[in-house]
Amino acid sequence: MPPQDIAIVGAGLAGLACAKTLAAYDVRLRLFDKGRGPGGRLATRRVEVEGHVLNFDHGAQYLTAHGAPFAAVLDAARAQEWPDAGRHVGVPRMSSVPRALAEGLDIDLMRHVCAITGTPRAWYLHHLDARLVRPGRPFPTQPPEVEGPFDAVVLALPAPQAQALLQDPAPHLAGVLQAVRFEPCWALMLAFPERLDLPDTLRPDVGPIGWAARDSSKPGRDSSLELWVVQGGPDWSREHLELTPEEAAAKLLEGFAQLAALHAPGTTLPTPFFSAAHRWRHPLVEAPLGAPCLWDATLGLGAAGDWCIGARAEAAVDSAAALVAAIRSA
Ligand SMILES: Cc1cc2nc3c(=O)[nH]c(=O)nc-3n(C[C@H](O)[C@H](O)[C@H](O)COP(=O)(O)OP(=O)(O)OC[C@H]3O[C@@H](n4cnc5c(N)ncnc54)[C@H](O)[C@@H]3O)c2cc1C
Known about the structure:
Layout: E1 5-9, H1 13-22, E2 28-32, E3 45-49, E4 52-56, H2 68-76, E5 80-81, E6 88-89, H3 96-102, E7 111-119, E8 122-129, E9 145-150, E10 152-155, H4 159-166, H5 171-176, E11 181-192, E12 201-202, E13 209-214, E14 226-232, H6 234-239, H7 245-263, E15 274-287, E16 294-296, E17 301-303, H8 313-328
Parallel strand pairs: 1-2, 1-10, 10-17
Antiparallel strand pairs: 3-4, 5-6, 7-8, 8-9, 11-14, 11-15, 12-13, 13-14, 16-17
Helix pairs in contact: 1-8
The structure holds flavin-adenine dinucleotide.
Flavin-adenine dinucleotide binds next to helix 1, strand 7, strand 11, strand 15 and helix 8.
């Protein structure tokens, strides 16, 4: 019999798509995420600086739909084309896409799930206030909240995080995830006081920068602002992964200035009035699992995400659909 009490960990595209589809069946659902809002890597950073509200899409840059399910997600979110036909962005920001998908779902936000205990088809989730769990700091000693039993748990997390949670309850599933690899990426957010003499997108072949885009040129943005997102290329980001954000920001800004000078010789970049770098350890899939999802019907444990299929957001939705089909046929 298919599970009736299901916990989903992760409210990125994969977790939201799982929840949305499962909600149509007569099941009790709980959805947890450590973020302040849903969306995961379809992320928008909001900052207030010098009287301006700045929104940067510092995660996924644009979305492409090859199949009907993701096209329907983009349609429902009223995503628009940018920078050209066939590529889409959320409007007025990238996080609008997952937020549209999350409508009507109850999500326990700011909850960091740190362990799964129990027995097959009777699982307990241990979770902590996400503000207590900080990379590079000792793991909090506070006792976690424990909820359950759930007869199924779905992990809609990047593979390394799913692997850590599966290690105790299902080491064989955790082992399978070892083969999955991600390319890291440093993303630099920049606000300039004046317009730069550059095209809206740049994808250089050489140098530290892999991609640069005028974020404020996307539809529905405040075009009076000059906002850029500049990504380090995968090799550069891997080599410089352990820099501090300040160090990474300085180096990427230097790389961007060189790139700008190549495009318009003699150009000097104005000093940005806002600059911040964000390190993504698991942004884009380099080596996927090669199976659409993971599901052990006897245990009632499964996992979904882009990393099952490939390096694009659509893969997260397709993986979720495959996992729901597997769960319903249990
Ligand atoms: C810099 C960057 C650029 C990208 N560019 C593109 C692009 O141009 N085009 C494209 O198609 N795709 C792009 N992507 C990839 C795309 O964003 C992903 O494929 C997609 O968002 C993956 O969705 P997901 O649901 O599988 O995972 P995620 O979005 O990572 O969702 C996982 C969720 O789990 C939560 N979580 C993690 N650990 C825990 C825990 N212990 N407890 C509770 N919650 C937890 C996280 O907060 C997150 O919300 C890019 C990604 C990045 C970061």
